[in-house]
Amino acid sequence: MKKGLFVLSVLASMGLMNQVQAKQTVCVFDLLGKAGDTFKVTEEWAVMAKSWQADIRLIPYQDEAKAQNDFDAGRCDAVYMTSMRARKYNRFAGSIDAIGGVTSNHVAQKAISFALDKRNKRRLLATVDNQKYEVAGILQFGLAYVFVHDRNLNTIEKAKGKKFAYLHYDVAQKVIVDSLEMVSVPSEISDFVKKFNSNQVDVIAAPAYAYKPLEIERGIASGGAMFSFPVVNITGDLIIRPEKFPTNFGIRSREWFVTQLPKSFAMVKRLENEIPAKYKLKLPKEDEVRYQQILRDGRISLTKQGVYDPIMMSVLKRARCTVERTSFECSLGGE
């Protein structure tokens, strides 16, 4: 009897050791690869993960499509990429980046904090094509602003017929661009700024995070501008296959990511401040309200089509109206 118990205890301890020692491979997208701020955050996360019984191996990618393809092919147990691309694995978290849904970094921080709250554990788990996925973390990339070659393109009426490089995997972008009667040009993160800088397109939307790495200044230096009106928020999602990680790993990981949000938003603010003031143009208040109404109509339509998660849409509205109590939409229904 004692011998049997001894054998069982040895086997149990070996099982625990195997759990601790099992390696998890994580593909991490960052425009700057290993040198990027995002990758550095995941390095800190990987160190912390050892205390959660995981052994993380990070693989940097500067090509987001390749990171996703390798994840889908099973070469990675997890992937960190933009939420727009990650929406296919979890619509709730992916909908934080709904068109016009986040109007400031303050609103973004409230929305991400809510999404990662333990009360949303069920919503952060999803099954797609018989594969289970879990959102184990969210960080802010930044608000995306409109950049133009010609600063005189300062109304949507003047932009009609102009070419806009949109990210082809986000159907919402194409819907909005088409509704504004612009010419939508399907693009990747790896080439949309190249098209802008080489005059293949007239307009792009990008966060400050992309300004230096992708050399956006080359496209606006001769009479161009950045309009300080956020059209979309861009976050990054850490998507894991939960069966590849220790029990309760996702919960612990999300708790850690919440503690990193102040640092994440400080980085965004620093990068936004580094864009020269001479390129920044503010739209008249009446135009901002008009564009917010257009984006709101688009969001409502896309939610009805199943692109966006309706619960997240109500969360975003609550966050916006908590920060901007006098906004026209706060007395309206529909979201």
TrEMBL record:
Coiled coil segments of this chain: none
Pfam families named among the record's database cross-references: AdeT1_2
UniProt keyword annotation of Signal present: yes
Signal peptide, first to last residue: 1-22
Keywords recorded for this protein, A-Z: Signal
Protein's name in the database: RND transporter
